[in-house]
Amino acid sequence: MSPARTGRQIILDWLYEEIRQAKTADLQRMAGFLAWAREIRKGCAKTRSTSRKAQLGAWRKKVDQDVRWGG
């Protein structure tokens, strides 16, 4: 019995079958779409990272600053 295939393997097999039957224009549109999707994911990760950093320091807005006595 062969090992179970992952979802990624199944999708890649489907993609390879479609690539075999595709025209050049189809491949060009597909490559453009994949590049666009990767850029969107990268932007989303950057936004999440920025939000996390802002949340880490958000408590400082609700706390009084230290009192320092001059000498």
Commentary on this structure:
- The protein is mainly alpha-helical and 71 residues long.
- It has a domain at 24-54.
- Helix content is 69%, strand content 0%.
- The longest helix is centred in the middle third of the chain and has 34 residues, at 24-57.
Helix content, binned percent: 55-70%
Arithmetic mean of pLDDT:
87
The major β-sheet equals: none
The geometry reads as elongated
Q: How many helix segments?
A: 2
How many strand units?
0
Query: Taking Cα atoms only, what radius of gyration do you get, to the nearest Å?
Result: 25 Å
Question: Roughly how many Å apart are the termini?
Answer: 81 Å
Low-confidence runs: none
Strand content: under 5%
Protein structure class: mainly alpha
What is the string of SSEs from the N terminus onward?
A: HH
Question: What's this model, at a glance?
Answer:
It contains two helices and no strands. The chain is an all-alpha fold and 71 residues long. The chain has a domain at 24-54.
What are the SSEs and their pairings?
Elements: H1 7-21, H2 24-57
Main features:
2 helices; 69% helix; mainly alpha; 71 residues
